Fold each of these.
Amino acid sequence: MLFKELNLIEPILKAVEYEKYEIPTPIQEQAIPPILEGRDLLGCAQTGTGKTAAFAVPILQILSSEPINTKKVRPIRALILTPTRELAVQIMESFEAYGRYTNIKNCVVFGGVAQRPQTDKLQAGVDVLIATPGRLLDLINQKYIDLQYVKCFVLDEADRMLDMGFGQDVKKVIKLVPKNRQTLLFSATMPSEIEKLANNLLRDPVKVSVTPVSSTVDTIEQSVYFVDKKDKRTLLVSILKDKAVESALVFTRTKHGADRVAKALITAGIKTQAIHGDKSQGARQYALNSFKEKKIRVLVATDIAARGIDIDKLSHVFNFDLPDSPETYVHRIGRTGRAGLEGVSITFCDEDEKKYLKGVEKLIGKKIPVVENHKFSLRDSAPTTVKSAEKRTPHTIVPQNRTSQNKASQNRSMQNNSQSRTSNNTQNSSGSQNGFSRNNAGSQNKSTQNNASQDKRVVQNKKPFSSTPRDKKMPPRRGNT
Ligand code: AMP
């Protein structure tokens, strides 16, 4: 399917072309038509699937087709509620990008920065408001925001919203938007709380599901190093010394851990910054921009700080610590291998974390290949396929399940249109890949090659992908968290 088959208006088609998107992703293909018809929608999709365009494009089209009273200040007609500032900024950038040839005005509000620039923009009139819950309610209380004309309400990353303790704020916002509205709810996972929320919020929704959280993107090459906790930093430095790791997002479980890792990398001469909840909004945005602009090679982050980070060309994700929730692992590694590009995920697992690794492998339904014989190998964790006397290559991956690993390392076209629509409005593409295609996104850089030995694969220098990134440069922001 092509974008022009989605009944999009010319200014939006032109913007999509400007972004160099060739074909809609599965979530876009499935969500755009019913949203244009005014239907409510329940979308089970994580970031990286193209879900922002899946709601931004039809909303822009709906709003553009309504007449605007030029004599009055524009009322807010669409509200997008999202849990983090980073995500809010990215959604705003998407609305700007896809709406560049329309006259729709957007505004983003989030806490931790001065409110004046936000309120000035609001008072000039905006059509689309993208907001995090706290600052939104704050500005509503101060009467800068009136939600009575909202006709389209999007609740983005609903599971994360509840995880982060915004449940009460979300309920307050829901009470303030008109009952007669179109509602779109997106969530990466569908625990029972979200299902309950969806039942209360949505009217006869179309259900769309892509890339369920348990399916890790096939273009991501995953591996695990068994290593002692105390050796993790040195191991990370040794891997990052390899210039083939062009850009790396390193996840740690704690804020202190993030600072300690960043310090060790900086000491080793690797350009690094850390982002986490204790850093000011300005510092976080600055670090993110430096990373996107390639001024630094490594960004160390905690899960919440990194949620929704959209970096077009991220080659490596490191799980410095394994998360206790397997879903978090899937979210983390989903930061690479985006938009149909390839990426590498490297996980460090110490003795205490083996139980978490088991959980991850159970969720994703496959074994993660083990990198053996590195300098800091845990004695007892080497799989039996490699004998101790054997001559060892540094960083040798031993696939635990060769079939799935070989499958995962093949070049692939990311477009997967094979999923069928069902007539009862439940459109499910479970197991499908993200399904992106940019007209110059390269997938030719796959670096993993089979070793002479049938059992082993050597981790080779991996050249990341070559897509045309959207220009997302942002000025550093000031303010407190
Ligand atoms: P999202 O899931 O909305 O965070 O999108 C992830 C990335 O995919 C963003 O960098 C988008 O610019 C990009 N993207 C969205 N739709 C498409 C498409 N149809 N083709 C290629 N890239 C896309």
Note: The chain is about 30% helix and 15% strand.
Amino acid sequence: MNFPAQAEGKFRDRRGVCPSFFFVFNHVSSWLTPGVEVIIQPNREAAASLVARIVAHDLRANPHLVLGLATGATMERVYRHLVRMHKEEKLDFSLCSTFNLDEYVGLFPSDPNSYRHYMDHHLFHHVNVDPRNTHLPNGLANDLDAECRNYEALIQRFGGIDLQLLGIGKAGHIGFNEPLSALRSRTRVKALTPTTIKQNAPMFGGEDQMPRRAITMGVGTIIEARRCILLATGDSKAEVVAQAVEGPITSMVTATALQLHARCTVVVDEEAGAKLKEKEYYRWIFENEPEWESYR
Ligand code: F6R
């Protein structure tokens, strides 16, 4: 991890403006925000497109947006839409900053399986984001604990994350917060569960080739983002999505912590939403609430 933007004094330290203002603002805005909302889209393309449109909307409203990013197969479609919007609709990333959720321990950025490589390949190299404002944890740091502390501090120096994109693993993780991650956990090194190793092994050409540990933002770090959007598609996610949204809050399924968030939008396709009990209620909200008018 490096601090070029900080060294040049370019980052936005909103806390420096007036800490008490933001404390009060965040608390007041949490009274007014909707908590968790679920949007069910007909297919994975429509779901990814909706997420990209929310990102584009927030970026246009605030060009200095601090954007939290996720990797994984589900997010690839979202990044394809954002790249298209940059090219065709002049969506401007030049002033925004990004923080990724996680990175494997031990992979070089040039490794095709590193999350730095993923982000360059799917987004950064195709839009006008300033590379110096893109941040991922450094999984090669000599002192990994110090790296985790520095990553947290850097997020704070940028004023916190405005909009955090999330996928969900089959074990219910957000980031690499595997079962039994404390719901107040911060950025740290985490050992991957067998379920996650199995899920991601095909990218590495087999389980033997896969790193066993990753640096991940903690659950506590993630839910401090001002807004979270979780995207899940496909029937393999149906069970875990139902648990995450409608199940009891538990560190065994860390995505359940999002139920504590003041403003979290869960976007699913029909397949991933198939096991939700309150589908009709969620559909009614999306069809009727003015907030979603321009997305229908
Ligand atoms: C990766 C990450 C993970 C993935 C999740 C889903 O940065 O944060 O939580 O979002 O494992 O991965 P896919 O989309 O490949 O099913």
Note: The chain has one domain: 33-291.
Amino acid sequence: MKTLFVNGTLMRGLALHPNLDGAEFLGECKTAPKYRLYSINDIHPGMYKVQAGGVAVSGELYRLSDETWQKVKAGEPRHLYCGPVELENGKTVDGILYPESKAEKYLDISKYGDWRKYMASKNKQEVFTMKHIMAEPYEFDFEPKETALVMIDMQRDFLEPGGFGEMLGNDVSRLRTSIKPAKKVLDAARKAKMPVIHTREGHADHLLDLQPNKKIRGRGDKSIGDLGPMGRILVRGEKGHDIIPELYPIEGELVVDKPGKDAFYATDLEHVLRQRGIKYLILGGVTTEVCVHTTVRAANDRGFECLVVADATGSYFPEFQRVGLEMIKAQGGIFGWVANSDAVVKGLEP
Ligand code: C5J
């Protein structure tokens, strides 16, 4: 058994640390005043230890089985490390620490000492300035501070020759036209310091999160979990499951792993968006009629205003691409708005 300090989660570990599934919540606590706290693109907090000028950081304590502890260590990005964290009561436990060199480029929020207090104060102080993107069926009005870019499933298994999409008999070049426009929008969002979230469709290596109907659908020789040219098909950690190099997430961007077509199903996406105060989503990705559509519909039902970047999406079927986009903006924008990448990039300019 291990005890782990987690800085600033919001829902007793369930929120930003899916790796903590199965951990026992022991209570809230503070560190000794020896740390600095950073906001990583306002998506999650990071902290590191200092020799002088540190503050006490609020967080939560968990008891973990050895197996969960291994999952936590394996699940954190490579540049994060687990190390000893000194608590206010003098005890030392393990915690997730951020190297000082990596934290430097992010906003120092140490004076709050608490991720939740920082987020609350931010929401109060900010001056809101609506912006517009020329879209269909009419202008998309959005508040940049409440907007996130969501890139859906830009994975090798869907976009690259040899992947699952091609094994199913599809022509991947139809999806690859979306890469350049998606990169333009990604760059514009990064420049505008807008939160960026990438999703990946896939399953744990034990496949216990794979519904039997999804496993057998298609009646192909091979299906999800079987060995393909890029590793086990749509299995997390395999080459084919990862995001294509052209659109690879940069540090601080959130990657949401989803077992379904809907990015809200069995993920913490909604919680992350709500706690960040996000109300508007700009979406690209593949495929238009499957995961983009399912996610946009789910987001719309949850009250998010969705703009789909037409040329940053793609389908293996030209008619589905056209009709998929039509359906979003039909009936006065029944699911949301549609615009081209140029209009989105223009709308994101300062
Ligand atoms: C599919 C997806 N098409 N990301 N997945 O199976 O659209």
Note: The CA atoms of residues 48 and 101 lie 10 Å apart.
Amino acid sequence: MQARTGRGFGIKVMTMGGNSNVKLISDDGIRVDGRKVDELRPIRIEAGVLKRADGSAYVEFGKNKVLAAVYGPRECHPRHMQNPAKAIIQCKYNMIAFSVNDRKRPGPDRRSVEISKIISEAFEYVVFTENFPRTSIDVYIEVLQANAGTRCAGLTAASVALADAGIPMKDLVPAVAVGKVNDQVVLDLQKEEDNFGQADLPIAIIPRTGEVLLLQMDGHMTRAEFDQAIEMGVGACKRIYDLQKDALARRYSVEKSEEDQLEEAPAETQEG
Ligand code: CDP
């Protein structure tokens, strides 16, 4: 095991960084789940899946299943946490007990506190918080099933949920993890690659401006590999961005047709 700085708790600390001996990419460049090195897992994004929340989204990145719900902007309690100049964003990332192989002990731990913090900070930069002084925007991310990359799936889902809640933002935020496995840079690590790979680098961007909103790294990469990873991650984020926009378009086109039907109904009654 190698010492390193930055994030990294639990299983990953015990494994990542030195297991290039575990063969996870075949000689013809195919990964354990059949993907090429620059291939994303199948992604599904649905917006507006919960009736009680102000905004919501459900995301699958391969075997990851993540639900996000947004409430607010609403009056911030306790009051001493209010900011008279802007809204605060309070994100709670949680892995539910049956989301991983070993039962996850319910409640917050170091890892979930860290992920909640980085996601809150990411959204504080994107949401026009100054429009909603003294309020809180609460973002709940529930990981129903985990297979590495849940912070990225969570960010992707939460961003769609914020848009679904009608909260003004600079842009949607797509996120994906890039990593290094068997000395190769690979896109969207799944569990075995995350556990036995040499590096993991989650990245989130603001596609409209090209800004990098979140960048973390576990493990080791050369400068050239890092540049390649960023290029790969940014390219993949743009593809995820299209899926996010498509999810919102589908959500609101369905709403519109329901409204249209309601509008048409009285007219038919009058005629009859
Ligand atoms: O999920 P993400 O890659 O963003 O975070 P991580 O800290 O790199 O965790 C990688 C993966 O380890 C998770 O997605 C889970 O599949 C797994 N894990 C686990 O099995 N049990 C935990 N208590 C925490 C993580």
Note: The longest helix spans residues 223-271.
